[in-house]
Write a structure and sequence with these properties.
Elements: H1 2-11, H2 14-34, H3 38-56, H4 60-80
Helix pairs in contact: 3-4
């Protein structure tokens, strides 16, 4: 019996981890689509992409402004998700 459980535990590998991560991401995306946060998340992703691009192009002032707006975006997430929290 002990050998049986050790075989099951040793059989868990990377494929199982990928399945767990895929399931969690699927549930998070489903939650975002069911709530009013879809537009907010899209906006934050655009700001995040613009921040990365401005860092890559060495646009320091724009990068600072976008990073500051990301901090405000995190607070906005808390406000939007207040009923769920």
């Amino acid at each position: 019996m002990k050998n049986f459980f050790s075989n099951i535990i040793s059989g868990i590998g990377i494929n199982d981890d990928i399945l767990v991560v895929a399931f969690v991401v699927y549930k998070i995306l489903g939650f975002i689509r069911q709530s009013r946060a879809e537009q907010l998340v899209k906006g934050l992703l655009v700001i995040l992409g613009a921040t990365a691009l401005s860092d890559l192009l060495h646009l320091y002032t724009l990068n600072w402004l976008l990073k500051s707006s990301l901090a405000v975006g995190v607070i906005a997430l808390v406000v939007v998700f207040q009923p769920e929290l």
